[in-house]
Amino acid sequence: DEGRRNFFATFHGQHAGSSVPQVAEKYRSFNETVRPRLIKVFANETSTSVGLPTIAYMETMAQAVFCLCPQGISSYTARLFEAFFAGCIPVILSNDYIPPTYGHSVPWQKLSIKWETSDLIGLRDYLRMLLADYKHVVKDMLRQVKRYSCWFDWFVMNRVVESRDRVCSPYAGVLKQLSAVKDGHTSNTETLPKFWWPV
C-alpha cells in the first residue's frame, strides 16, 4: 500500500536535455517536450524522484505511489508496462496513446490515470490532492494494479487467477482482443475516453 512507498511520484528517462548529444538531438528532432516539462514541474516537489536514467530506476518505481509515464519519441511508453511490475499507479502522459484493453479485461480507468500533457502543473496538484484526500481510492488503485499485472507478464504463458476470464496473460489478451475485432466488437478507441482520473 502507499504507506510503505517513500516516493510520491517518479520518472527517470532520456529526453531532449540528455547529456548524450545523439540522444538529445533525437528527442529534439521529434519536438518531444513532455519529458523536460514534466521534470521541471516535479523536480522540486517533496518526495519525488525525476530526471535522467538511473541504474536503480526499478527500485525507485517500486517505492513510488505514482509512476509518471510520459510519451517519448512516439506516443507509446514502456514506462507504462514497467509500472505494473513495480506495483505503482501508472500516470499516462501521452495524449494519443490508447492502451490495450485485451477485450475489456483490463479496467484502465480503475487502475491508472491518463492526463492531458499540456496541464502538468494541474496534474501535480491533482495527484497531491488525491493522495491527501482520497487515500482509499489510491489504495484501491494500487490493489487493482497488482491484480491486473498478469496481463503484462510476457514470461508466463497462462496464469489462472481470480477473475471472470480465468486465464490472465498478455498472450490470452491479444488473442481475446483479436477475436473481438474479428467478431465486429468495439475497438479500444470506442470504449476508452481520451483522458480519465478516478475523482
Automatic annotation (TrEMBL):
Matches recorded under InterPro entries: Exostosin (IPR004263), Exostosin_GT47 (IPR040911)
GO molecular function, one term: glycosyltransferase activity
Domain Exostosin GT47: 4-120
UniProt xrefs under Pfam families: Exostosin_GT47
Family: Belongs to the glycosyltransferase 47 family.
The protein's name: Exostosin GT47 domain-containing protein
Species of the source: Perkinsus olseni
